Each structure stands twice: as C-alpha cells, then as structure tokens.
C-alpha cells in the first residue's frame, strides 16, 4: 500500500534540491528557470499526495511554496489559484490560515483588476467567519465588500445576494435601520425585473419587521410606501400579518400578537431569523406591559 504522506515528503525533498540547483551563477546560465518550474510541479505533487494522506497542514504549506515560486516569476493568476488550493486545505485544520491565504489571493486579483473574482473570495472568507470562526462583524464586513465589488462590476444580482446576507446579520445584531434599508433597496431592484418581481414581497416583509423592531409607527409609514411601490404586496399574507401585528402592539395585546404569528406560521413556516425578530418585538410589548 502506498504511503502518500511519505510520498509527499519525498516530493518536497526533491523540490528543494531542484531549487538549490537553480540558484547561483551556474544555475542562472544552465536553465535556472526550468528548474523553478520543475520545483513548482514537485511542490504541487507533494501537496496532492499530502491531501490523499489527509495531512492538511502539510498540503497547505506545499501549495503555498508553489504559489510563492509563481510570484517570483510574476505569475499572479497561477499563484492565486494555488493560494485558494492552500486555503481549502487549511480550512480543515486552521480556518485563520485559510483566511490569510484567501486574503493573499484577493490582493493578487485586485492587482490584476479581477474584481469579480476578488468578490467571490471575499464571500469565501465571509463563509469561514460565518460558520467556522463565528465572527459576525467580520462576516458582515466581507459580504459588504463583496457586494461593493460586484456593484462596481455591474453584477447586480450577485451584489444583492451579498447585501441580503449583510441585512440578515445586521438585524440579528440590532442594526434594524441598516437592515431595513438594504431589504428595501433589494426589493425595489426586484420590482424592476419581471423575473424577480415576486421575490420583492419577502424583502418588503423582512424590511417591515425590521421597522417594527424600531417602532410600530415607523413600520406603519414604511408599509404605506411598500404598498404604493408594489400594490400586489397589499393583499399578501405578509402585509396582512404586519398590519395585524401593528394593531396588536398598539392595543398591547400580547395574546393576540402571539395568535397572529402562530396562525401565519401554521401555513407559512417562519425561519429562525423571523422567529428571532418576532420574539424581540413580543418581548418589547411584554416589557411595556410590565412597566404599567
């Protein structure tokens, strides 16, 4: 049975010997460049052997060595590709190292003016902060940066997908005004598209809930704007629920509020984001009642 870990180590050793042979005066005369190319190939073969052996740190480091050699030859695209390969390995054992590799990749693609590709890697970093490192502030930062890059490249649909992530986490962190503004912006852009028009309803629904977390009067005014911009929203179950919730908040009717949410949820199940915001609103009603 092949020991892929040992095989990877052998490739590494061979790569290092190639590099030693490419340095100095004689190396520069007798094919130093080709020796570097051979070393790159050996580092990549070492990395792939380490991947098979599930030696993720070693694989990531070997890909980084190959990437650095490409940079010495001014091959930014190839270096960027290898840093992504390194990041995928490091992600399994050290997410922080994975982020660093992707940040290096982003720098290279920015230098090349490849902002759409850079945006894609910002999303990858955001996903690592979202799932592995659980740092929502940095999650939002990288989704926002990706959205900005996509917007600059006129990739509106991709920008909106990133903005919706920003809105999602902004609301969960209590920044309801920012979240509502984003949902409204995305909803209005959807209205302009025949294919996306129907999805505007959910974005307005989420925006309205964010407003409701701030103040029911604020929400009532926003709701009027949504109905003017998108008349089909008026007869939707989402709009009717928000209208009912506003009235229940005005009446301080906690039971009625709960019943309205349960009735909606029984037909259209609410995800954890909605549940989180609705719980906050309910607790604010309960808190107001306790102060009476």
Automatic annotation (TrEMBL):
Keyword Transport among UniProt keywords: yes
Main localization, broad class: membrane
Keywords for this protein: ER-Golgi transport, Membrane, Protein transport, Transport
One GO BP: intracellular protein transport
Membrane topology per record: Peripheral membrane protein
GO molecular function annotation: soluble NSF attachment protein activity; syntaxin binding
Family per record: Belongs to the SNAP family.
Protein name: Alpha-soluble NSF attachment protein
